[in-house]
Amino acid sequence: MKKILVTGARGQIGSELVTKLRSIYGDINVIATDIRSSEEEKEKGPFEVVDVTEEKRVFEVAKSYQVDTVMHLAALLSATAEKMPRVAWDINMGGLVNTLEVARELNLQFFTPSSIGAFGPTTPKENTPQDTLQRPTTMYGVNKVAGELLCDYYYERYGVDTRGVRFPGLISYVAPPGGGTTDYAVEIYYEAIKERAYTSYIAEGTYMDMMYMPDALDAIVQLMEADSSKLKHRNAFNITAMSAEPMDFAKAIEKHIPEFKLSFDVDPVRQKIADSWPNSIDSSAAEAEWGFKSNYDINRMTADMLEKIAEKIK
User: Fewer CB within 10 Å: C terminus or N terminus of the chain?
Assistant: First the structure.
């Protein structure tokens, strides 16, 4: 990678990925794009307003900056997608095929994330294999499975160097939650600092895979820099750092804030989504093919999250 176009650059992943990429490849070599304008972003480096449902605009920006890589992050997340399934299809799938077409036309390397949302209730729940039955029951999950297959198709049919991972729930202190099912694992830290209490919309005992954002960003860069000849799966690598339920976060927080209290008021929509996902996943293919390894467990992450949020909201 030498010059990179990032779509959805103001989202949860994009807002931090752009910063990391610029620290590695240089500010001028990372072009941030989003559907929303941002004067603040323009001051940090190249920024363009791009609606990924408009293929011509994506092409114009990619060509004008002479990029060699596209990182396509623009999407509606799981809970939001369930509220607006047709809009989610148009943005998630329309945006994906548009950016893939641009990658094909300009011979660009291509990254887009999939998710544990690509799995469904009939998928093995424990240590979910890399290759297994998927059959999701949410629009977001349907989008992700279709996206994995579409990226495979563009690699096999056109030779586009497509790559991707199945992200677990991502936890970050930088960007606010964006409508995902695992967002409680971000909200709980903010409320721990502000209120010393949190009411979880996900039920006690509901395990899902999670990852701290620094590990997620490292994984993206590591995968995109990996030797292409060693990649067998390419577009949907399982990666994870921890499998956790709400009480696990509470116990980790109590080590720093002993008076913290966790209660529950379950949201049936997001709980149904969570129940359809794995309890834990197997990331051995990513480990074997490009050396994936996470650095943060729940305790190390919790200490860092609480410290950073306390500084942020002073």
Answer: C
Q: Does 233 share its domain with 261?
A: no
pTM, rounded to two decimals:
0.94
- Strand order, beta sheet including 165-167: 114-115, 165-167, 237-238
Domain CATH code at residue 73: 3.40.50.720
Residue 98 near residue 53, CB atoms below 8 Å: yes
CA–CA separation, 297 and 314 (whole Å): 26
Q: Are residues 63 and 114 in the same domain?
A: yes
Q: What are the pLDDT digits (tens) for 229-261?
A: 999 999 999 999 999 999 999 999 999 999 999
Round to whole Å and give the CA distance between 119 and 133: 8
* SS3 track for 161-204: CEECEEECEEECCCCCCCCCHHHHHHHHHHHHHHCCEEEECCCC
Indicate if 215 and 205 belong to the same structural domain.
no
The tens digit of pLDDT for each residue in 60-97 reads: 999 999 999 999 999 998 888 999 999 999 999 999 99
Amino acid, single-letter form, for residue 121: P
Amino acid at 285: A
Residues 88 and 222 in one domain: yes
Q: Which residues are catalytic?
A: 140
Q: Does 291 fall in a domain?
A: no
> pLDDT digits over 160-177, tens only?
999 999 999 999 999 777
Tell me if 17 sits within 8 A of 73, measured CB to CB: yes
Rounded CA separation 51/200 (Å)? 34
18 in a domain, yes or no?
Answer: yes
pLDDT at residue 179 above 80? Answer: no
Under DSSP, is residue 69 helix (H, G, I), strand (E, B) or coil?
A: strand
DSSP assigned state of 99: H
